[in-house]
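Audit log entry. Action: structure prediction of a protein-small molecule complex. Ligand: adenosine-5'-triphosphate. The ligand was supplied as SMILES and no pocket hint was given, so placement is left entirely to the predictor. Protonation state taken as written. Sequence taken verbatim from the request; no trimming, no tag removal. Recorded inputs:
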Amino acid sequence: MNSPSPLLEVRDVSLGFGGVRALTEVNFHVNQGELFSIIGPNGAGKTSMLNCVSGRYKPTAGRVFFEGRDVTAMTPNQRATIGIGRTFQNLALFGHMSVLDNIMVGRHHLLKNNFATGGLYWLGAQKEELAHRRKVEDIIDFLEITHIRKSTAGTLSYGLRKRVELARAMAVEPKIILLDEPMAGMNLEEKEDMARYIVDLNEEWGMTVVMIEHDMGVVMDISHRVIVLEFGRKIADGLPDDIMSNERVKVAYLGVEDDDDKAAEAVA
Ligand SMILES: Nc1ncnc2c1ncn2[C@@H]1O[C@H](COP(=O)(O)OP(=O)(O)OP(=O)(O)O)[C@@H](O)[C@H]1O
């Protein structure tokens, strides 16, 4: 049996865009401390699913629970505040800002002091600023981006920008982090680095991770549990080995490898 109360629970979630059914009655849960992956062919509904969890999309039907609380009606900002963090499939950094400033943006919603807090503002603000800086420096150390902390984000390689994006998502100190294709467009070395950061994030920082990723090798290597979507429906849910040997999954993936190879070639 699974643990009594999962950190995240998606219950019977369906999502439609006009005539397109992006998701149909999808159920799954993610336990505290898990490294959980969502896989599936292109257009299977993976990003739509993450968007339903982060609050960007409202399910047409079904509910999303976080720490046992129904968050279905909450906005993305409200969900971020209670510990649901995310990165995006396409980079969403401020290209003209430094790496450090991009990461500090992630801390903004954590700032307690503002001009309305009165007399103790300056003292409180200074202490708070110091604590934020320390946290950001920890993240910079962890992701080994010290050498680029002053660089303008837009000038960095794609792999480094993906790393900075992860740093910014970590800066929010989420309880769960949703990673949308963290390794897309990376070369082998960058992928290996990113996989190691994700494992360390999970094991050393204790962060629960939900990841969408097309690289099957990485997914099967580092995930504790995997679900598979096809045409918006969940077709499998289990340990990586079970998923690998699942006949329905093999069929769903026929042809997908080719698309991935083409995409990788296009980026290289
Ligand atoms: N904002 C939207 N408006 C209309 N249709 C959408 C929208 N977002 C997603 N869809 C449709 O929903 C379906 C699922 O898309 P989604 O992006 O969630 O799939 P995916 O599994 O993440 O695909 P990929 O691996 O290519 O990123 C697709 O048919 C897609 O065209």
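Audit: result stored. The chain has a mean pLDDT of 86. Residues 121-142 form the longest helix (22 residues).
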